[in-house]
Specification:
Layout: E1 9-12, E2 18-22, H1 51-60, E3 68-72, H2 82-90, E4 94-99, H3 106-117, E5 123-129, H4 134-140, H5 145-158, E6 164-169, H6 175-188, E7 197-202, H7 222-225, E8 226-230, E9 233-235, E10 247-249, E11 258-261, H8 264-272
Parallel strand pairs: 2-3, 2-8, 3-4, 4-5, 5-6, 6-7
Antiparallel strand pairs: 1-11, 8-9, 9-10
Bound molecules: iron/sulfur cluster (2 copies).
The site of one iron/sulfur cluster has 12 residues, from loops.
Length: 286
């Protein structure tokens, strides 16, 4: 007899390769239309994770095979202890800073290269953009966001970083169009990257709460190779940070390595068939 009880797909994490750290859940100088974060009404509210919580998490995961630590937010570079946290994480492994780029200028890029040079590991950047045209990009993001991102990319490349443009595909463009047009943007702005790094992820549309999860096409999703640390505990992924449906435990001493795919965010992930938050690269062949 076929059971009529619906059971969601369970994902068991294979290895903790990616540690996402939510530096703040609410602090960002932008208010993008496509952002899935619920911002507070009170603009000056702060909620930064403490450096001690991060230090403890790094100690608790010392036997895990963490390959990259992602400093995320909202906007991670608003954290007052950002530099100290970056240095601490770099002692452990490579670090990826997921940012809108607005805090990166020449002086900051030079400083970050100095920090990287003091370490054996590398710093990568994921700079968020939504469109290769300024007007369309800023219509989704924030006035000036496009120029901030280009400015940040130019200075990071100048100091020998290899930044990734992270495109949440709000306009539902083809991968090929995004890749080709961004190459043109790089050329036009003298951003000299031999192979431009573009990472495209589907945009999560809150108004479409349901859909099919394509479990037969599952690859390495963020929840199968990583976990998210927030000031309130451990969660499956950045989409479900501070959401009870993604809760895995209060710390990394004893946390769940399993999670159920049961949210609309999981539907969005399943459309991607590659990690949405961890580093992966899109090329014109895909
Ligand atoms: S920059 Fe990022 S965190 Fe800030 S509002 Fe935009 S999408 Fe959200
Ligand atoms: S939203 Fe994505 S990464 Fe998070 S639990 Fe669902 S499928 Fe996994």
């Amino acid at each position: 007899m076929v059971s009529s009880i619906y059971q969601s797909k369970i994902v068991k994490m294979s290895e903790l390769n990616n540690l996402f750290i939510e530096m703040t859940a609410k602090c960002c100088n932008y208010r993008c239309k496509h952002c899935y974060i619920d911002f507070p009404m009170y603009k000056k509210e702060t909620d930064f994770i403490s450096i001690d919580v991060i230090k403890q998490a790094l100690e608790d995961t010392i036997d895990e095979n963490i390959q990259c630590i992602y400093l995320t937010g909202a906007e991670p570079m608003t954290h007052p202890d950002f530099n100290a946290i970056l240095r601490m994480c770099l002692k452990r492994c490579n670090v990826c800073i997921c940012t809108n780029g607005s805090f990166i200028n020449e002086k900051k890029a030079r400083f970050l290269k100095k920090v990287e040079n003091e370490s054996e590991n590398i710093i990568t950047f994921k700079i968020g953009m939504n469109h290769y045209e300024e007007i369309k990009n800023d219509d989704v993001r924030y006035r000036g966001a496009y120029r901030h991102a280009i400015f940040a990319l130019k200075h990071l490349v100048k100091y020998d970083f290899y930044p990734i443009v992270s495109v949440a595909n709000y306009y539902k463009l083809s991968d090929k169009e995004i890749y080709d047009e961004f190459q043109g943007v790089f050329r036009h702005n003298d951003i000299e990257l031999s192979i431009p790094n573009i990472q495209i992820s589907p945009w999560h549309d809150r108004s479409q709460d349901s859909g099919e999860i394509f479990i037969d096409k599952m690859g390495d999703w963020d929840c199968s190779i990583g976990r998210m640390l927030t000031k309130s505990g451990v969660y499956t992924c950045p989409f479900l940070s501070n959401d009870y449906r993604g809760r895995c435990g209060s710390n990394f001493v004893d946390y769940s390595k399993k999670c159920a795919l049961e949210t609309s965010f999981c539907v969005t992930c399943s459309k991607s068939q590659r990690p949405v938050f961890a580093i992966n690269y899109t090329n014109s062949e895909q």
